[in-house]
Design a protein that fits this description.
about 260 residues, alpha/beta, 7-stranded parallel β-sheet, two-stranded parallel sheet, 9 helices, 9 strands
Length: about 260
């Protein structure tokens, strides 16, 4: 994927990895559609992107609200923009035991992380497929590769994203659609602070492991490079990434080590 002069839509662009990704991508001199819930933060990102030489369009919406997703999609479709890339960084994390979490909270996490993401994809997919080569980048997590304590529904949504988008990739192998699964480990962002607890309230704490994680700025440099090379799976993070390989190749060792995993 050559990003220069391409029109690229980024969700979750108001904070964290999504914000850093938008700023890094703006150095490629492209047209960016920036989305998230916080318009004020998106406007700030937009200013930085413009300084870097890219044009921007700010489209705020809520991934957890199907009507909001549809309105955002149609507002872009009505502008007849030829979208070459769709990059999903929007989402919400969790900090609660499965046994104590209300089912309504499980559903909320799925609405944001899974259904909102695939809803926008389905709306924009016809535009992407008109291009000879288009790209979708989907941010999951290493806990989309294995279960993790206090992240039951969050982990489940990330597993679901792998299943959906890997299927979509195979279905469109003849259509020039590139799908890259972005799999971060512990990245130093506010994801733990913005996570929700068993009642749906903000967790509002920085996990010690998260606080020691790779910076978002260094993370996105790797992601952009891998996307430019059309990598199907992009693992990025610190030493915790090794657990993905342990789970794949040494399951017995993984089951032993998983008992010792610190959830925070």
């Amino acid at each position: 994927m050559n990003f220069k002069n391409k029109t690229l839509w980024i969700t979750g662009a108001s904070s964290g990895i999504g914000r850093a990704f938008a700023i890094e991508l703006s150095k490629k001199k492209c047209q960016l559609i920036l989305s998230g819930r916080n318009k004020g933060s998106l406007d700030q990102v937009s200013k930085i992107c413009k300084v870097n030489g890219s044009s921007t369009l700010v489209i705020p919406f809520d991934l957890g609200d199907e009507n909001s997703v549809n309105l955002a999609a149609h507002s872009v479709i009505d502008k007849n923009l030829n979208i070459h890339g769709l990059y999903h960084f929007g989402g919400i994390s969790q900090r609660s035991l499965a046994s104590e979490t209300k089912l309504s909270i499980d559903r909320k996490i799925f609405e944001v992380n899974f259904f909102g993401t695939i809803a926008l994809t389905k709306k924009i997919l016809p535009i992407l497929l008109k291009n000879k080569k288009a790209q979708i980048g989907v941010t999951t997590s290493i806990v989309g590769k294995f279960g993790f304590p206090y992240r039951s529904s969050y982990s489940a949504t990330k597993h679901a994203l792998h299943g959906f988008f890997e299927s979509l990739r195979i279905e469109n192998k003849e259509n020039g659609l590139i799908i890259s699964m972005i799999v971060p480990g512990r990245i130093k962002t506010s994801i733990s602070k913005n996570a929700i607890d068993k009642e749906g309230n903000s967790y509002n704490k920085m996990d010690p492991g998260q606080d020691k994680g790779k910076t978002a700025e260094s993370t996105v440099k790797i992601i952009v490079n891998k996307l430019e090379n059309d990598k199907k799976e992009i693992l990025v993070g610190g030493k915790e990434i090794i657990m993905v390989y342990v789970r794949r190749f040494f399951p017995s060792l993984y089951y032993y080590l998983s008992k010792k995993i610190k959830p925070f």
